[in-house]
Amino acid sequence: MAKIGGGRCFEFSMSRYILFLATFCFFSLFSTCFSELCSLNMLNQLSQALRKEFEVQHVLMNAD
């Protein structure tokens, strides 16, 4: 509801637009960081599982 000549209505819609844009940027940044953390967590779990498997294989080889 922006008036061509400016005025209060234009400022209100502009601030709403900026607020929407800021919220969108925040959530996209948050989702990116969250997905990065999830992938790091998955890699960490995978490396721990591989390390445990390696330790088990090492113990089994030394038992022979």
Automatic annotation (TrEMBL):
This is Uncharacterized protein. It comes from Ambrosia artemisiifolia.
